[in-house]
Structures are given as C-alpha cells and as structure tokens.
Design brief:
By secondary structure, the chain is of the alpha/beta class. Helices cover 27% and strands 36% of the residues.
Length: 135
C-alpha cells in the first residue's frame, strides 16, 4: 500500500534540567529546539495534499508557542517548579523527566489528539543530537 508523508519543521526555545542526571544536564540550561513532525496519509485530499503545511504549523506550533516556547520544562518533583511559579515565570510541568525523548512524545500525543495523522516526531536538542518518538 502506498503512503504519502509530509514533514513540517518548527523551531522553539526551551529550558530544562534532568533530575538524577550525573552530568551537566542536572543544571538548569536551555536549548534552541528544532522539531520535525511527520504526517502521513494513504490517499491525498481533493487538493492533492496529505495535509496543508499551514494546518500543521497552526496546530503544532500554536500549541508549542502557548505551552513550551521560552518556558522551563520541568519534572513535577523538581524543587524549581514552585520557585518559577511563585516568581510568575513560565513553566511547563511533566510527570517524567523533561528529556528530548519525553518532549518528543508529548508533542506527538498533543498533535495526534488534534486530529493529525502523526507518524513520527524528531526533536533536535542540539545540531548533532535528536530524539525520535513514533508508535
């Protein structure tokens, strides 16, 4: 069976730290994230598209801009959650450690919940390192 795929790239900035990490990632630090989201379809729509790139942009980047961009992404058990909240600084709280892998899964699940036929999400944490999530 044939399958079509489009990929939308999205840039955003975020900070995080990893609880119980033995290296320097245990400290608060930031990244210029580069996200690639793949959307698939077996058939094209009436316009000959898998999905309009603008729809993917609006759905995914819109959510990222409201929830992750220029925010600290922290584990719910991190002591800094209350510090950021009391200072009225933007923070996004995860049940898991805010690794690139877990952030990629979060974005995948959010996009899927909005009706996108997501096949894979890649989050580039640095220009040489990325994490992938797919079901």
């Amino acid at each position: 069976m044939a399958e079509y795929k489009i990929t939308k790239a999205i840039e955003f900035c975020y900070g995080h730290r990893l609880l119980n990490h033995k290296g320097k990632c245990r400290y608060l630090h930031g990244h210029n994230g580069h996200l690639e989201i793949d959307v698939t379809a077996c058939d094209l729509d009436d316009l000959g598209m898998v999905r309009d790139f603008a729809d993917v942009q609006e759905t995914v980047k819109g959510w990222i801009d409201q929830n992750l961009d220029h925010r600290m992404i922290l584990n719910k058990d991190d002591v800094f959650v209350s510090v950021f909240e009391s200072a009225q600084e933007p923070v996004f709280v995860l049940d898991d450690n805010p690794t690139a892998e877990n952030i990629a899964r979060l974005i995948y699940e959010q996009a899927e919940s909005q009706g996108l036929a997501v096949s894979e999400v890649r989050l580039w944490e640095t220009p040489t390192s990325y994490a992938t999530y797919r079901k």
